[in-house]
Amino acid sequence: MTDVFLYVANSGASLCQTANSFIEQVMPRQPANQLAEQVYLIIKDEISDFRLLPGDRVTETQLAERYRVSRTPVRDALYRLRREGYVDVAFRSGWTISPFDFARFDEFYDLRIILESAAVERLCERGVRAELDDLKAVWLVAPDEREVEPRRIADLDEEFHCGLVAAAGNRELTRLHIYVTERIRAVRRLDFLKPRRVAATYEEHATVLRLVLQGKAHEANAELRAHITHSKNEVHKITIHMLHEARAANIASVALPDRVTRKRHAVTPRKTRSPRKAPIAAN
User: Fold this and answer.
1) Does the pLDDT value for residue 130 go beyond 90?
2) Do 7 and 113 meet the contact criterion of CB atoms below 8 Å apart?
């Protein structure tokens, strides 16, 4: 644990203050209205999927019509997202999707290193094995068995890091790590649009996992820090053009109204007619 404490000490007071702010925001809250919760999750998902881009402006009325709900749950959801930094509101101008704050993302990535390093050291001390079987089945595979779809890779990457922390057995560490993970999800997904990054992720995850299984905490944390830092550096290369490309890739075969309708059905299920199968073009 010494390395983790040294890292915290060298990170400066601002990072500690940021961590305190995170902890305050993830304290238990009263359960939200169920419909507002559904709308909140839909909007948050659209931001993460780049269906709503930084700078996009929306109104409560527009969103209420899209999600087929009243303005009240939409307003509740938007104010919750505002507290979390996803959106902002201006008098007479409606709501705006917040721009990327790269300085803040750097702080999140730095905090990730602290949390995940602590988890790895705890895992090596406890000699955990069975808890990592699911991660081994995904990441310790032959190249021809690897996932290639960017969105799925992003989900697997998130599951790997969250799985390491959860396996350490500290619930508060896990809760704070989930909070950090949600805040960087949007930019993190862009890291897997290029095949070289997918291949690098498989290799780096496999290296970290093998070292943890061998109980080599120092070596595992060195690899982990390098892996997260590399990912952070890739984030700095993101441009608005890349965000548009990401959104185009995500919705190339699915129209936005169809997706919103499916999400709305999750709130109030109703029977629909099966779509007609599209004809298959001849080769």
Assistant:
1) no
2) yes
User: How far from the centroid of its chain's Cα atoms is residue 77's Cα?
Assistant: 19
Q: Token pair 């702010």 is at which residue?
A: 21
Q: Give residue 49's pLDDT.
A: 73
Contact assessment for residue 29 and residue 69, using Cβ atoms and an 8 Å cutoff: no
Structural domain containing residue 219: 102-235
pLDDT, residue 28, reads: 43
In this prediction, residue 173 has a pLDDT band, given cuts at 50, 70 and 90, of very high
Report residue 153 CA to chain centroid gap: 12
Query: Does 262 map to a domain?
Result: no
Would you say residue 250 lies in a domain?
no
Beta carbons of 216 and 77 less than 8 angstroms apart: no
CA 109: distance to chain centroid? 12
pLDDT, position 153: 93
Q: How many domains, the chain? A: 2
pTM metric for this prediction: 0.67
Looking at the chain, the whole-number percentage of residues with pLDDT higher than 90 is: 49
What is d(CA 39, CA 25) in angstroms, rounded to the nearest whole number? 20
Q: Which parts of the chain are beta strand (E)?
A: 57-58, 87-90, 94-97
Residue 60 covered by a domain: yes
Are the C-beta atoms of 44 and 81 separated by less than 8 Å? Answer: yes
Residue 183 pLDDT exceeds 80: yes
Domain containing 35 — which CATH number? 1.10.10.10
Residues 114 and 228 occupy one common structural domain: yes
Q: Is 184 helix (H, G, I), strand (E, B) or coil?
A: helix
